[in-house]
Design a protein that fits this description.
The chain is an alpha/beta fold. It is 63% helix and 8% strand. Among the domains are: 2-118 and 247-318, Bordetella uptake gene, domain 1 (D-Maltodextrin-Binding Protein, domain 2), CATH 3.40.190.150; 121-238, 3-Layer(aba) Sandwich (D-Maltodextrin-Binding Protein, domain 2); 343-382 and 624-755.
C-alpha cells in the first residue's frame, strides 16, 4: 500500500505542470481599462480582445476613468484575484505611484502578464496652424516660438505623464502655453478647430486625421524616423533626448493563480503572432518598435523604467504645490484682458461704433504683443471666413421676414394677441418667454431671435414697451434651453469630456426645470418695470382693459395670403426640425416669394436695395466681430486668458475651483467666447478640480448652466447681433441693460445646482 501511495504522489507531481500548462478559462475574463473609450489604451485593449476571441477566450472590457489611471488601478485592486480579472496598464501608473498619487505601490500590487505595444509619440500640428503661423517643420516651429514666446499652445492629456514628459524633453527652453485635456477626442477636435496649435499623442489616435490631411506630424519622438513618415524630423535628428512612448501591457492583481497568468500570457503570445494583430500594429504605427514581451521580460523593463521615471520626476515629487495644468503667458493674458476691458467700455459709453472697436482694438493688441502685420492679417482673414454663414443668414432672413411683414402675414397673429392681451403687459411678457423657449427647441440662437422677435415685436411697439427687455427675455430663454443635448454649449462640453451630451443633460434636467420657472419669474418682474415705464409714456389703460386696435386688412388675393402663410410655417419648421442650412432656407424662401408678391423687376430691385441698406450696418459689425475673434484666437490671447483665470484661485480653494469660475462665468463668456470657454477654460478647470477628486461631469454641469445664461450677452456671439439688428438696439445698450439681470440669474443657476444635488459642494 505504501508503494502504491508513493507512486501516486510521484504521478501527481509529474502531471501537475502539465495541468498548469494546459489551464483553460471556463468563462470570459474581465480586463479593466483605466482610461476612457476611444483613446489609444482603449483601442489597443479592444484589438487584443478581438484577438483573444479568435483564440476562444471572451473578454469583457470595463472603462474606469479618472486620476490619470489611478482610479482604474484602485478598482482592479479591489476585485478578487481569481484569475478572471486583469487590467491594462501603462507607465502612467508608475508615474502616479512615484508621485504618491496612489495609496499603494504599483509593482508591489500587480504582476505584469505581457507587454502589448510600445507606441511612438509625436508632436503634431494642424493644417490651419501651419498656414496661420508660417512653419512647416519642427525646426521652423522652434524658431517661431523663440521669436514669439507664448504665442503657441499645445494640448496634452496629462502634464505629468509620458506625453507631458516627452513634451518637456522636446521643448526645453521654449515658452509654449500648455493646456491639459481630459480626453484625447476633445484635444484632437480642439487642434483641428484651431483652439490649440500643437498636441502630443501617439500616432494611432490621430491616424485618420493624418490621412485626411487635417493633422500633420511635426516631430517623431524616437531614435529614428518612422518608415511611414520618412520626411518628418525625429528627436535624434535634432539632438533631443526624447524617446519615451506609451508601453501598454496587461497586469494581474498579485495573488492571481500563476496558472491563469501563464495561460493568458500564452494566449496573448498567439494573438501577437496572428495576422489580425499585425494589421492592427501596422495601422496604428506600432510596428515601428518591438511590442510584445513576455511577463518576465516586461517586469524587468518596468523595474528599469521605474528608476528612470523616479529620477525624471524628482523635482515634481519634491514640490508639494498643486499647480494648474496650463502655464499661461502673462504678457498675452494681460494684453487680452486690457483690450477686452477697453472694448466693453467703448461699447457701453458709446465712444466709438462697434465695427471700429472690433477692428482696431485687436489689431493694436496683436501688434503690441509682438506679432508681425502679415500674421495678424492671417488671423483676421480666418475670423472673417467664419462669419460668412452668419452674415448670409442675417441678410436673407431680414429680407424674407421684412417682405412677409409688409405683405401682412403676421397681422392675424398680432391682431389676435392684441385682442387677447390688450394692454396686459404681464401676459405679453409671459408670452414672450414662452415663445422664446419654444423657438429655441432647435438649439439655434439665430432662429430663436427671428421667430420670437417677429411674433412679439409688433406687440412691444403697440404698447411702447422697451425693446431691451424683449432682447433680455429672449437671451434668458436661450440660456435655459441651451443645455438640451443638441445645444451648442452642451455638445462642446460633452466633446471635451468625451461623453454623450445626453448624459450631461439628464443630470441637468432638474436645474433646467428650475431655470424655466426662473425665466417666467423674470418675465413677471420685467412686466412690472414695463408698466411703470408705460405710465410715464402716457399709456394709462388698466391692466385688464382690452385695447381697441384697428385691425389691418390685407389687400392681397386670398390664395397669395395662404401661400405666404404656408411658406412662413414651412420655413420655421425647416429651421426647427430640418437638416437644411438656415441661410439656404431663407434664400430659397425669398427666391420663391419675391416674384409672386412683387410683380415688376424694378420694384423687386427696389425692395432688395431697401432691405440691403437696412442690413448693411449689421453686416459690417458681424464681419468686424469676426476680425476680433480671429485675431484673439490666432494670437493665443484667448488661450492665455482662459489659463490665467484659474491661477488667481488659492490652492486651499482648489476643490471649489469650478464653483469659483462658475460665479464669474458671465463676464468670462463676454471675454472668451463660447469656443474658448469650453475648449480652453473648461479643460483647465477640469484638470485642476480632478486633482482634488472632483468628477469632471460635476465641473462641466455647473459651468454649463452658469455660462449658458450669459452666452447671448457676449460681444463675441454672432447670433446676438442678429437679434440686436432686428430690434435696432446698440450692443453697448444691451450689455448695460441686461448684464445685472443675466449675472444674477447665472448665480441662481449655480445655487440650483447645489440645492438640487446636481453638483455637490
Amino acid at each position: 500500500m505504501k508503494k502504491f501511495l508513493y507512486a501516486l504522489l510521484i504521478a501527481v507531481l509529474c502531471v501537475s505542470p502539465v495541468l498548469a500548462a494546459d489551464f483553460t478559462f471556463t468563462k470570459p475574463i474581465t480586463i479593466v481599462c483605466p482610461w476612457g473609450e476611444g483613446g489609444g489604451a482603449d483601442l489597443t485593449l479592444r484589438a487584443l480582445a478581438a484577438g483573444l476571441k479568435e483564440e476562444g477566450l471572451g473578454v469583457n472590457i470595463i472603462n474606469v476613468t479618472g486620476g490619470n489611471g489611478s482610479n482604474g488601478a484602485a478598482y482592479t485592486r479591489e476585485q478578487p484575484a481569481d484569475g478572471y480579472t486583469f487590467m491594462l496598464g501603462t507607465q502612467s501608473l508608475l508615474i502616479q505611484d512615484i508621485l504618491g498619487e496612489m495609496k499603494f505601490k504599483m509593482l508591489d500590487e500587480f504582476v505584469p502578464v505581457a507587454r502589448l505595444v510600445h507606441a511612438i509619440d509625436v508632436i503634431a500640428t494642424s493644417r490651419k496652424a501651419m498656414e496661420e503661423r508660417g512653419y512647416n517643420t519642427f525646426t521652423e516651429l522652434r524658431d517661431y516660438v523663440k521669436a514669439h514666446p507664448f504665442s503657441i499652445s499645445i494640448g496634452m492629456l496629462t502634464r505629468i505623464g509620458v506625453d507631458g514628459l516627452s513634451f518637456q524633453q522636446a521643448t526645453e527652453g521654449l515658452n509654449i502655453l500648455e493646456v491639459s485635456y481630459p480626453t484625447g477626442g476633445g484635444m484632437t477636435k480642439a487642434l483641428i478647430e484651431g483652439q490649440i496649435d500643437l498636441m502630443v499623442t501617439g500616432t494611432q489616435e490621430i491616424t485618420p486625421q493624418i490621412e485626411a490631411g487635417e493633422i500633420i506630424p511635426l516631430l517623431i519622438l524616437a531614435e529614428k524616423r518612422m518608415n511611414r513618415y520618412p520626411h518628418i524630423e525625429c528627436a535624434k535628428d535634432l539632438g533631443i533626448n526624447a524617446f519615451l512612448g506609451s508601453e501598454r501591457g496587461i497586469f494581474a492583481k498579485k495573488g492571481t493563480p500563476q496558472e491563469a497568468i501563464d495561460a493568458l500570457e500564452a494566449l496573448i503570445g498567439k494573438v501577437a503572432d496572428s495576422q489580425g494583430w499585425k494589421d492592427f500594429l501596422q495601422q496604428g504605427g506600432y510596428d515601428e518598435r518591438p511590442g510584445f514581451a513576455k511577463g518576465a521580460e516586461y517586469s524587468k523593463i518596468l523595474n528599469d523604467e521605474y528608476k528612470t521615471f523616479t529620477n525624471m520626476l524628482k523635482p515634481a515629487k519634491d514640490s508639494k504645490t498643486k499647480k494648474p495644468a496650463a502655464a499661461p503667458s502673462p504678457k498675452l493674458a494681460i494684453i487680452g484682458f486690457v483690450m477686452v476691458l477697453i472694448l466693453i467700455i467703448c461699447l457701453i459709453r458709446k465712444i466709438v461704433i462697434p465695427p471700429i472697436a472690433f477692428i482696431l482694438l485687436p489689431t493694436i493688441a496683436a501688434l503690441i504683443a509682438g506679432f508681425d502685420p502679415l500674421a495678424v492679417n492671417k488671423f483676421a482673414a480666418s475670423g472673417i471666413s467664419k462669419m460668412v454663414s452668419t452674415v448670409s443668414l442675417f441678410v436673407f432672413s431680414i429680407s424674407f421676414f421684412s417682405l412677409m411683414s409688409e405683405q401682412g402675414v403676421f397681422d392675424p397673429i398680432v391682431n389676435f394677441l392684441i385682442k387677447k392681451a390688450g394692454t396686459n403687459v404681464t401676459l405679453v411678457m409671459l408670452a414672450t418667454a414662452a415663445v422664446g423657449i419654444i423657438g429655441h427647441l432647435d438649439g439655434s440662437g439665430a432662429t430663436t431671435f427671428i421667430i420670437t422677435i417677429t411674433a412679439m415685436l409688433p406687440m412691444f411697439k403697440k404698447l411702447k414697451m422697451d425693446n431691451r427687455s424683449l432682447m433680455l427675455l429672449i437671451c434668458v430663454a436661450i440660456g435655459v434651453m441651451n443645455v438640451c443635448p443638441w445645444g451648442g454649449p452642451t455638445i462642446r462640453a460633452a466633446t471635451v469630456l468625451e461623453t454623450d451630451p445626453n448624459i450631461l443633460w439628464h443630470r441637468l434636467l432638474p436645474v433646467q426645470g428650475a431655470m424655466l420657472v426662473i425665466t417666467f419669474v423674470v418675465a413677471f418682474l420685467l412686466s412690472g418695470i414695463q408698466k411703470r415705464r408705460i405710465k410715464k409714456l402716457g399709456l394709462t389703460a388698466d391692466e385688464g382693459e382690452v385695447a381697441q386696435a384697428e385691425e389691418k386688412k390685407s389687400t392681397l388675393p386670398q390664395w397669395l395670403q395662404i401661400y405666404n402663410f404656408v411658406l412662413v410655417v414651412a420655413v420655421v419648421a425647416a429651421l426647427m426640425f430640418g437638416s437644411f442650412n438656415p441661410a439656404y432656407v431663407f434664400m430659397i424662401a425669398l427666391a420663391i416669394s419675391l416674384p409672386l408678391n412683387i410683380k415688376t423687376l424694378k420694384e423687386q430691385n427696389a425692395k432688395l436695395k431697401n432691405y440691403g441698406v437696412a442690413a448693411m450696418s449689421m453686416v459690417v459689425t458681424l464681419f468686424a466681430a469676426g476680425i476680433f475673434t480671429g485675431v484673439l484666437s490666432g494670437t493665443g490671447m484667448l488661450n492665455a486668458m482662459a489659463s490665467a483665470v484659474v491661477t488667481v484661485i488659492p490652492p486651499d480653494l482648489g476643490r471649489y475651483t469650478h464653483f469659483i469660475v462658475a460665479c464669474f462665468a458671465v463676464p468670462l463668456i463676454m471675454c472668451l467666447g463660447t469656443d474658448s470657454f469650453y475648449f480652453g477654460l473648461l479643460p483647465v478647470v477640469v484638470g485642476i478640480a480632478s486633482q482634488f477628486g472632483v468628477n469632471p461631469q460635476d465641473v462641466a454641469c455647473v459651468l454649463l448652466v452658469a455660462e449658458n445664461v450669459g452666452v447671448m450677452i457676449s460681444p463675441l456671439s454672432p447670433a446676438a447681433y442678429l437679434g440686436l439688428g432686428l430690434l435696432e438696439i446698440d450692443v453697448g445698450e444691451h450689455i448695460k441693460y441686461s448684464l445685472p439681470w443675466i449675472w444674477g440669474i447665472s448665480i441662481l443657476s449655480i445655487v440650483a445646482c447645489i440645492v438640487l444635488g446636481v453638483t455637490p459642494l
